[in-house]
Design a protein that fits this description.
The structure holds two protein chains of two kinds.
Chain A lengths: L1 E6 L2 E6 L6 H8 L18 E4 L2 E4 L12 E3 L12 H8 L9 H14 L5 H7 L11 H19 L5 H8 L2
Parallel strand pairs in A: 1-5
Antiparallel strand pairs in A: 1-2, 3-4, 3-5
Chain B lengths: L7 E4 L3 H11 L3 E4 L5 H6 L7 E4 L4 H4 L2 E3 L3 E5 L4 H6 L1 H6 L1 H8 L4 H4 L4 H7 L5 H8 L3 E6 L2 E6 H4 E3 L2 E2 L6 E8 L4 E9 L6 E12 L2 E10 L6 E2 L1 H7 L6 H14 L10 H23 L5
Parallel strand pairs in B: 1-3, 2-3
Antiparallel strand pairs in B: 4-5, 5-10, 6-7, 6-10, 8-9, 11-12, 12-13, 13-14
Helix pairs in contact in B: 11-12, 12-13
The chains are: A alpha+beta, B alpha+beta.
Chain lengths: 172, 292
């Protein structure tokens, strides 16, 4: 069957099998390997991408079901060579060690901050409660997301000075 | 690598279209909504089918939560997140928000639907316990029309429902009765897990006495079970700790847990009792606007 969808702003059309999972479509058919294929059993959420603006597990959505929808992957976080504040936060606060869970963590974090720009620690922990990290103990991930929230608020206050975020990242 | 067996994918564009496809394709076809129960089962080859009918395009038609004077009607495609965020639903039945907060995690709640949850009929499924507690009924549609089935009759056994071939669950109806409230208590091993045991309670008062009460339990029997003996024990009595103890004791005796990785039979009976007491206590406190 043929499927068409928008991935990171680009319209893509491919011939696929009905049983193809979205995670494999992104990785194997489009070469977008930033989205990680983890537990395979709907448990770890490293494969989280956005579908129509909401985080979903791409191992639990068929590529066919994504037809006609807008998908956003971790590759789209960086814009015009500027890392997203969430990415910067993970660098600044050591939000990763092995990095395997990181794409899903960052996509979930980005969605949280879009909905709730100044989340409490509880809100952050709830947002990532389904995501499994086996390295960090989550504390540094929570701090990374808090860093992103704080720097977005500061950047917003300075009005059209997104450079603040870039400069902060260059320290690492 | 877990991959479903081959099947043919179809996308339904209306309820009638979905039912037409189900009729034409027969018992080897299955509807998929959020897919967070069915797709993992297909990957494990526990569910094998020839045709998968995607009904996500029916969300506009079936994603409603309609609050009427005497009942709330919830479309089968209402997603967990929408149920969690509905203030009208939480006002009439706080048990929904209690339960939705602890169903899986936000990522799953973005996709999963009430219709899918009930149709999966997992004995540990929280929304089934909520609907059992509230005395909800299910509207099942086929090509010859609709029929309305009480939750007790909707659940036929683990993973079995009253929905027949060529039919689909389209709506859940929950009756509103005055002077009532409700609550849900769940113990899980970690955030987002299935319940070790859950208990839902709904209580209605007439002055100082309980005019009716219902308790539903999840994960302690072949289906989420309502316990009529508790309703009988509570009706006509004034709420008290002794009464909650009695209801808890009935819950522990009436349920049929099995020992598994989530706990022993003894532990689960203890939870059934304790969570029943907590849910009843909280329901009554909410009626009196005393909840802390």
């Amino acid at each position: 069957m043929q499927v068409s969808m928008t991935v990171n702003g680009d319209e893509v059309t491919r011939e696929i099998e009905g049983r193809l999972l979205l995670v494999h479509f992104l990785r194997d058919h489009l070469g977008l390997t930033g989205t990680h294929w983890g537990c395979d059993t709907s448990n770890c959420r490293t494969c989280v991408v956005w579908m129509d603006g909401e985080p979903v597990k791409s191992c639990t959505v068929l590529a066919a079901m994504a037809g006609g929808h807008e998908i956003r992957t971790v590759e789209d976080l960086e814009q015009d060579s500027v890392l997203d504040p969430v990415q910067q936060g993970f660098i600044q606060c050591h939000g990763l060690q092995c990095g395997f869970c990181t794409p899903g963590m960052m996509m979930t974090a980005r969605a949280l901050l879009d909905r709730s720009p100044d989340p409490s620690e509880h809100e952050i922990r709830e947002a990532i409660s389904g995501q499994i990290c086996r390295c960090t103990g989550y504390a540094t991930i929570v701090r990374s997301i808090q860093w992103a929230a704080a720097h977005e608020a500061a950047a917003g206050a300075e009005a059209e000075v997104p450079d603040a975020v870039v400069t902060a990242g260059s320290a690492s | 690598m877990q991959v479903p067996a081959p099947f043919e994918y179809q996308r339904a564009t209306s309820i009638d279209h979905a039912i037409g496809l189900l009729e034409r394709l027969g018992s080897s076809s299955r509807l998929v909504a959020g897919g967070h129960s069915l797709l993992p089962m297909m990957k494990l080859r526990l569910a094998n089918l020839e045709y998968l009918i995607d009904i996500n395009d029916l969300h506009e038609e079936l994603g409603y939560i309609t609050i009427e004077p005497s009942q709330i009607r919830v479309g089968a495609m209402a997603r967990h997140r929408e149920l969690l965020e509905s203030d009208g639903l939480a006002e009439a039945f706080p048990i929904f928000r209690d339960a939705e907060r602890v169903i899986a995690d936000p990522v799953v709640r973005n996709r999963g639907t009430i219709g899918g949850s009930l149709s999966q009929a997992d004995p540990s499924e929280d929304l089934s316990a909520v609907c059992t507690t509230l005395g909800a009924s299910c509207v099942i549609r086929g090509s010859s029309g609709e029929r309305v089935v009480a939750m007790e009759d909707f659940n036929r056994g683990p993973y079995e429902t009253a929905v027949g071939d060529g039919e689909m669950l389209v709506e859940i109806r929950i009756p509103i009765r005055p002077n009532g409230s409700s609550a849900y208590e769940k113990v899980e091993r970690r955030a987002g897990d299935w319940a070790v045991v859950s208990a839902g309670a709904a209580v209605w008062m007439d002055g100082e006495v309980i005019s009716d009460a219902r308790v539903g339990l999840a994960a302690v029997g072949p289906n989420t079970t309502g316990i009529p003996a508790i309703s009988e024990a509570l009706r006509g009595r004034a709420p008290s700790e002794e009464l909650y103890d009695k209801a808890g004791a009935i819950a522990a005796e009436s349920c049929q847990p099995v020992s598994d990785m989530r706990g022993s039979v003894e532990y689960k009976r203890h939870l059934a009792s304790e969570l029943t007491r907590r849910a009843l206590r909280r329901s009554v406190a909410r009626i009196h606007h005393e909840e802390v």
